[in-house]
Structures
1.
Amino acid sequence: MKTINANGAKIPAIGFGTWTLDDAKAERMVSAALEVGYRHIDTASMYGNETGVGAALATAGQNRDDVFVTTKIWHDQLGAGELQASMAKSLDKLSLDYVDLALIHWPTESVPLAETIAALNDVKSQGMAKHIGVANFTSALIDEAVAFSDAPLVCNQIEYHAMLNQSTVAATCKAHGIAITAYCPLAQGQALLTHPAVTAPAQRLAVSVGQIALYWVLRQDNVAAIPRTSQPQRLAQNLDVFDLAVTPEEMAALDALNATGLRVVNPGFAPDWDIS
Ligand SMILES: NC(=O)c1ccc[n+]([C@@H]2O[C@H](COP(=O)([O-])OP(=O)(O)OC[C@H]3O[C@@H](n4cnc5c(N)ncnc54)[C@H](OP(=O)(O)O)[C@@H]3O)[C@@H](O)[C@H]2O)c1
């Protein structure tokens, strides 16, 4: 598996996303994902499935060190002390001693960022996480967080797919050596997967539209992706996305989709996104 190297972390370029999967389904699908070769699993305290993810990891044949596990701390738990307590709870549910990556799930204005980043550094110092990072951070927030952090931040997990131009925040991440993990890399199956720029190469190459969408994401510099599926037969397909014979013309048509500006995840508490 190709890895994205970021400030000391080696992040497998494809991970399995688990949002919306309950404990039982997460356990089944993460077990199946590990079986077909996934070595990167993405969960969060907010997903309510860390117990199921942990159960799958416990019964899998892999050594703990061979699987890259990410969890995230919800935005109402970002104060000193509560962030560490939330992380301890996550580890308990996951039945793990550490995660590979602990992320702030969303920024908040309720707690000073310096306090949150200090608590996140403490999580790393205590050995609860090998690496730390953020999610849904804008360029300005990334600059601030980097300035506050003793340990390097390795990842900004953001919505990233062909129909959304994220070049501004991507450039900021790159400048700080921070990798992007693309969430909603399939735009949750919305307009992206039915657009001719995706369906035409899929048909020509006899692959799925999901594979074309993922191929585009993984051709971007410094970007890993964490597609989710609830269908076991799609697991292997979504890993087989590195060597598709997409032509330069087809790639150009995919690149042009970023003018669409489709943002799938945009809750009321989201920050003021970068304009690209
Ligand atoms: N940090 C954050 O704030 C944040 C926000 C959103 C998501 N995430 C993370 O990112 C992960 C991925 O994002 P997401 O789950 O929102 O959306 P996504 O991965 O973009 O899309 C999932 C959808 O795509 C469909 N799909 C999967 N493989 C396919 C294929 N090969 N062909 C066609 N359709 C396919 C799935 O349907 P089936 O189930 O029927 O296959 C599902 O409806 C999440 O699970 C979560 O771990 C993080």
Note: The CA atoms of residues 107 and 141 lie 8 Å apart.
2.
Amino acid sequence: MNDVLPGSEAKPAYVKAMFDRIAARYDLANDAMTLGHHRAWKGAIAKAVAPQSGERALDLATGTGDIARRLRRAVGDAGRVVGLDFSPEMLAAARRRGEDGVEWLEGDMLNLPFAAESFDVVTVGFGLRNVNDLPRAIAEAYRVLAPGGRYASLDLAKPRIGALKPFMDAYSFGVVPLIGKAVAGDDTAYKYLPASNDTFPHQDDLGKAFEAAGFTDVRVKDLLLGAAALVWGTKPA
Ligand SMILES: C[S@@+](CC[C@H](N)C(=O)[O-])C[C@H]1O[C@@H](n2cnc3c(N)ncnc32)[C@H](O)[C@@H]1O
């Protein structure tokens, strides 16, 4: 284990403790670090899965619930939205912002407490980067989706233009921890963030992992020159 990246076995406990620690300042830090861009990206992931009125949606690694709330507005009162996270403090922060018709649930996205085919839509925002078993996380989403269901991940990504990498690295490894320290009082968590992206697959390879799990019509969309990316697909009907 280096100073910010835990080994695979230690990763879940490390990640959970980290988010419990920063939960109260998480939203503020997000706005500061992404200069507000995360809001548009979350709108984009909600749009990618095209939630319809009355559908059942599950937002994994929901955190303070930004994506879950967007899904809830789309499916309306006739639908159902569950926001699942394994950090009790992140869920407490979500609840403090208002229930908003979302069911907040403590749970592990590697072992979902739902029967097969329970949802029409599954989303995960900045969550897959944090698991120690990516194929299993994708397989769990696939299992709980009904045939024809849509799955999308929004996460940090890699710029396609190589010349941008030094600038993005300077921002991620230099500026982000400073913002994390100033806003959330925790630079370790915000050193983990870019380090965890370094070991996360390229967005195109994440798309291939979706296909390997059985998803079809898989698409990849870069956001802000590849600072983040959206990957989404459909479970065959
Ligand atoms: C960077 S936050 C993202 C929160 C929210 N989706 C957003 O976009 O603002 C990552 C979240 O993933 C959660 N998480 C990480 N691994 C998890 C797992 N195995 N099961 C459930 N939640 C997990 C953390 O507790 C944290 O709240």
Note: The chain has one domain: 11-234.
